[in-house]
């Protein structure tokens, strides 16, 4: 059925265009021969095609535009006739003899345009006659296009200020009256369309009306272009008349569109000075009118006007714009009882944006808007409307965007109250917006009170809410918690007492985060606390009595807090992370010379290692961390250090895999030889560790031979060789040339063995070691090189790597790189 209707409409349009073109052809022939009567005859027949009622507004517009083009040519003919002496008055009378009223009025408007231009009669009389005569067409579509034509041909002939048509008898008042009268009649025709036809075609009619609305709105545009319409005339005549028509038409579509037109076409300063009149019409509109959009656009225009220049801001204060807008919004919300919460929040969001632009220094105004929004939301509970929550986010984001400072937003007492009405998901979105604002503007939150208020706003990100089931993408969750971690790092105060209060406040909040969040939020809190410890260490005399005043912030207090904080990770569980943090705290306690505290942290780390860390890879990593941290500790006495060292070496021998055992044991050798501490240089125990590592490496080869039929790689022996060389260079008297020579013989024997597996990595490692030894010989830094050289020569001969004996000259930097490679385990260890 629809397809048939469209097809028929196309046929009717084609037939109309064909008839119009045919009569236009004869009209042109008459015009060329200066035959006025035939020209009028065929032009009237041509315009009769516009009498159809079968076309939709869209198709009718196509037909109208073709007729319009022809009428412009006819108008030019009438002008030529006037120049040749033809009486315009007679012509004006002649066209009124057309048989049908619609062609007659089109011709009358065309001649009327020439009549006004000839100035043979006052423009206001001709305009008044034309606008009155057009009342003869009451069909909505035909009448709207006829009056649109009248507006089009007369807009440049209105008696405006500075216009050639202005005179004693013609004033701008007449021009305004003509446009207003034409607007009124067109609006009546437009509204009438809604009430014609069956109810089932309501949507179709509304669509057709939407296609025609610009014809009506053009009148308001013409009014705004009249130079003589100053503020007084707009305030006293234009705006009241237009609003009267808007309110009285009682049509939802017309009221919304025309109010929007008023806001868009007239100047901002006019709106500001007539704000009370314009806002007074809003409560009188139909309840179904989308008044939130109208007022939002009005406030948007005023906000942009205020932002355009600081010179206009006094005008806003003079007219009390905020007070008027605030009252108007209240009345609209009160009058429209059924207004959805989305609409009310949108209004308050626009009002807040306006307030921040016009009165950025009046936080009380902004807080007042938020308070009104809270009052509206109080009867609704948690919002479940996605549109409303989106507007709430826009509302709460406005102060952040304006001030670029969350601290200022926190001064608004109603700001957190608005956030209470957000659901969990939207609360998290808003919290993320707040954090992003802090990061973008590098905002420092420097007091515990502000931190408390900030974390209350971010409840959705840092706390497991009661009864709330979170189903969130794992990557999104990690991004959220990482943002919280970055925020914690932004919290800082130079005052140490206040900084400690900030840390306590953060701890109170993140401890409610649940097992999923703690691994993200505890580490930044721990490191922030350790920063404070080191600041305290630098500002206090730790040697005399660091805990003399128990009421003040001290490292001891902070370490107690840290111990409680890290313990929370055990419920996650996250033993590896907790162990790392305990070791970090132990190192900080070492810097503060707090032996009991450092020992306690090591004890906790050992307990975690024994009871919680079960994965073999995790054990290896944790053990190397323990060894590396313990090696740097200088605060321990002999007894405590021996206890901890004994435990570490015991753990090393109990690792699952032999290679891991070997590496852990030779790493323990560093626990007995610390360069910068003479009292921690036990060469004998270093040698014991290295020999034990050799035995484990040998056992590993035997196990490999039994299981795989070959002894496997000699890489462990090469690594141990490097340790021997390291401690030899450090001056350990227990590491002798003979021991090194024996080890090289062992490596050579193993590599020559038929059971030895080829390992390019081990070969490369050994080659780098030999290059390093040769470099040391050239520099005269290694006494053992000559003694070892014969053994190395055997290895080179067997491997066919004689080129290594006479390598190309190596640059010093390159040889240093070999040294780094040779001592890679040492470098890694000392960097732990």
TrEMBL record:
Chief localization: membrane
Membrane topology: Peripheral membrane protein
Keywords for this protein: Membrane, Protein transport, Transport
One matching Pfam family: Vps35
Keyword Transport part of the UniProt annotation: yes
InterPro entries, A to Z: Vps35 (IPR005378), Vps35_C (IPR042491)
Localization terms from the record: Membrane
Function: Plays a role in vesicular protein sorting.
Family that this chain belongs to: Belongs to the VPS35 family.
Protein name: Vacuolar protein sorting-associated protein 35
Organism placement in taxonomy: Eukaryota, Viridiplantae, Streptophyta, Embryophyta, Tracheophyta
């Amino acid at each position: 059925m629809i397809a048939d209707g469209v097809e028929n409409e196309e046929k009717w349009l084609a037939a109309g265009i064909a008839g119009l073109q045919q009569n236009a052809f004869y009209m042109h022939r008459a015009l060329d021969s200066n035959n006025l009567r035939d020209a009028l005859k065929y032009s009237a027949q041509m315009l009769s095609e516009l009498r159809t009622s079968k076309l939709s507004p869209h198709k009718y517009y196509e037909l109208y535009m073709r007729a319009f083009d022809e009428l412009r040519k006819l108008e030019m003919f009438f002008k030529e006739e006037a120049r040749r002496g033809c009486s315009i008055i007679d012509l004006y009378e002649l066209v009124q003899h057309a048989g049908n009223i619609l062609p007659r009025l089109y011709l009358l408007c065309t001649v009327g345009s020439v009549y006004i231009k000839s100035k043979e009669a006052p423009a206001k009389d001709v305009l008044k006659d034309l606008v009155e005569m057009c009342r003869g067409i009451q069909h909505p579509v035909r009448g709207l296009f006829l009056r649109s034509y009248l507006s089009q041909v007369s807009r440049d002939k209105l008696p405006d200020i500075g216009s050639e048509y202005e005179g004693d008898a013609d004033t701008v008042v007449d021009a305004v009256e003509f446009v207003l009268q034409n607007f009124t009649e067109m609006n009546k025709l437009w509204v009438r369309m809604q009430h014609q036809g069956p109810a089932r075609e309501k949507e179709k009619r509304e669509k057709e009306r939407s296609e025609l609305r610009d014809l009506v709105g053009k009148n308001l545009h013409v009014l705004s272009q009249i130079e003589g319409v100053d503020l007084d005339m707009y305030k006293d005549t234009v705006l009241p008349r237009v609003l009267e028509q808007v309110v009285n038409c009682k049509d939802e579509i017309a009221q919304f569109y025309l109010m929007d037109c008023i806001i868009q076409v007239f100047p901002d300063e006019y709106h500001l000075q007539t704000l009370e009149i314009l806002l007074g019409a809003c409560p009188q509109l139909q309840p179904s009118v989308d008044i939130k959009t109208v007022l939002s656009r009005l406030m948007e225009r005023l906000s942009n006007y205020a932002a355009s220049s600081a010179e206009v801001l006094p005008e806003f204060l003079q007219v009390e714009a905020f007070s008027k807008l605030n009252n108007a919004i209240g009345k609209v919300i009160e009058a429209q009882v059924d207004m959805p919460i989305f609409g009310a929040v949108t209004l308050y969001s626009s009002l807040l944006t306006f307030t921040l632009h016009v009165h950025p220094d009046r936080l009380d105004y902004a807080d007042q808007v938020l308070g009104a929004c809270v009052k509206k939301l109080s009867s609704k509970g948690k919002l479940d409307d996605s549109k409303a929550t989106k507007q709430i986010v826009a509302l709460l984001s406005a102060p952040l965007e304006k001030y670029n400072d969350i601290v200022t937003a926190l001064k608004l007492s109603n700001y957190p109250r608005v956030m209470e009405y957000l659901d969990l998901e939207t609360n998290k979105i808003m919290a993320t917006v707040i954090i992003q604002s802090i990061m973008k503007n590098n905002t420092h939150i420097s007091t515990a009170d502000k931190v408390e208020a900030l974390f209350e706003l971010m409840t959705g990100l840092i706390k497991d809410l009661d009864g709330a089931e979170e189903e969130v993408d794992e990557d999104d969750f990690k991004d959220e918690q990482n943002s919280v971690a970055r925020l914690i790092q932004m919290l800082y105060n130079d005052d140490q007492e206040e900084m400690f209060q900030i840390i306590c406040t953060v701890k109170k909040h993140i401890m409610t985060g649940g097992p999923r969040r703690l691994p993200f939020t505890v580490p930044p809190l721990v490191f922030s606390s350790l920063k404070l410890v080191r600041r305290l260490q630098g500002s206090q005399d730790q040697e005399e009595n660091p805990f003399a005043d128990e009421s003040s912030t001290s490292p001891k207090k902070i370490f107690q807090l840290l111990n409680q904080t890290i313990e929370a990770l055990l419920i996650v569980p996250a033993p590896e992370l907790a162990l790392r943090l305990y070791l970090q705290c132990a190192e900080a306690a070492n810097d503060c010379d707090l032996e009991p505290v450092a020992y306690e942290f090591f004890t906790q780390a050992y307990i975690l290692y024994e009871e919680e860390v079960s994965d073999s890879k995790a054990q290896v990593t944790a053990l190397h961390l323990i060894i590396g941290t313990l090696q740097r500790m200088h605060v321990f006495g002999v007894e405590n250090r021996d206890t901890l060292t004994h435990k570490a070496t015991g753990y090393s021998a109990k690792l699952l895999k032999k290679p891991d055992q070997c590496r852990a044991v030779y790493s323990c050798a560093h626990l007995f030889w610390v360069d910068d501490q003479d009292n921690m240089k036990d060469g004998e125990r270093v040698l014991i560790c290295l020999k034990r590592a050799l035995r484990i490496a040998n056992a590993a080869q035997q196990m490999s031979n039994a299981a795989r039929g070959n002894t496997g790689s000699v890489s462990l022996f090469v690594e141990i060789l490097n340790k021997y060389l390291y401690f030899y260079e450090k001056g350990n008297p227990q590491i002798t040339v003979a021991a090194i020579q024996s080890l090289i013989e062992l490596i050579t024997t193993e590599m020559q063995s038929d059971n030895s597996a080829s390992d390019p990595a081990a070969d490369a490692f050994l080659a780098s070691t030999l290059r390093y030894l040769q470099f040391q010989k050239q520099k005269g830094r290694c006494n053992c090189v000559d003694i070892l050289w014969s053994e190395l020569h055997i290895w080179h001969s067997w491997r066919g790597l004689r080129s290594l004996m006479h390598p190309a000259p190596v640059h010093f930097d390159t040889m240093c790189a070999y040294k780094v490679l040779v001592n890679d385990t040492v470098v890694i260890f000392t960097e732990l």
